[in-house]
TrEMBL record:
One of its GO terms (molecular function) is ATP binding. This is Oligopeptide ABC transporter ATP-binding protein. GO terms for cellular component: membrane. It comes from Paenibacillus vortex V453. Pfam families: ABC_tran, oligo_HPY. GO terms for biological process: peptide transport. Signal peptide: none annotated. Belongs to the ABC transporter superfamily.
């Protein structure tokens, strides 16, 4: 769903007007997402020319502007470089420049800092936050890093085996997680002040997703599993204000929970 509209049935031609324009994406490995055979300038201006219909000259000027916007100081030189000549952080900036070149309403960032070292990670996250605040671009951040979630997000949807199992404000998710999987995730974060504790881990493995699953997908690993959990998949339901969870535990009177 995008802006209340189901975009799955759209024709490829219609999707092309949304993709890269109203919705764009930053991937986790900038080296494999950029085409090694074209300069970064060619790759960014292709998007601009396609969606904005600008001339080659104007698209190049707009590309330089975009590269500056994402903090690349030598934009006029970098525009003619091939991706392999740039560092990981620079490449990710180029990817972001490409993603925001048509001023998207939604930017999907899929593990945007995983392949980067910690200092560059912080710079890229700062840049994404600035885009969100200054240009009002909505950002959907996909990450397994709870530190990044706490730092960057307003609302969080926790997914397990392809289903959203909990959704709420970042504060609610960290302060009072409702789903056993979220509770396990938060418990497994190492704490600076607890150096001698053995790190908690959720036992078992993620289910194989191409098999037919019955009941709650987390049941095999859940310490609170009940017979009902093995039979029926719970719905995602709002149990507190703007805080939803997919778990039978919150439907069952406390005395019935073993
Ligand atoms: S529905 Fe049951 S198995 Fe699934 S998370 Fe809740 S208590 Fe655990």
């Amino acid at each position: 769903m995008f802006k209340g509209k189901d975009i799955v049935p759209l024709k490829e031609r219609e999707m092309r007007t949304i993709r890269g324009n109203a919705v764009s994406m930053i991937f986790q490995e900038p080296m494999t997402s950029l085409n090694p055979l074209f300069t970064v300038g060619q790759q960014i201006s292709e998007t601009i020319r396609l969606h904005r219909g600008l001339s080659r000259k104007h698209a190049r000027e707009h590309t330089v502007e975009m590269l500056k916007k994402v903090g690349i100081a030598r934009a006029v030189e970098i525009i003619d470089e091939y991706p392999h000549r740039l560092s990981g952080g620079m490449r990710q900036r180029v990817m972001i420049a490409m993603a925001i070149s048509c001023n998207p309403e939604l930017l999907i960032a899929d593990e945007p800092t995983t392949a980067l070292d910690v200092t560059i990670q912080a710079q890229i996250l700062d840049l994404i936050r600035r885009l969100n605040e200054e240009y009002q671009t909505a950002v959907m951040m996909i990450t397994h890093d709870l530190g990044v979630v706490a730092e960057m997000c307003h609302r969080v949807a926790v997914m397990y085996a392809g289903k959203v199992v909990e959704e709420g404000s970042v504060r609610d998710i960290f302060k009072k997680p409702l789903h056993p999987y979220t509770q396990g995730l938060i418990k497994s974060v190492p704490r600076m002040n607890e150096q001698h504790r053995r790190l908690f881990s959720i036992s078992g493995n993620v289910p194989v997703l191409n098999t037919q699953m019955k009941g709650c997908r987390f049941a095999e690993r859940c310490q609170n599993v009940m017979p009902l959990c093995l039979e029926k998949l719970p719905e995602l339901k709002e149990y507190e204000e703007a805080h939803s969870c997919r778990c039978w535990l919150h439907e069952t009177p406390k005395e019935e929970v073993v």
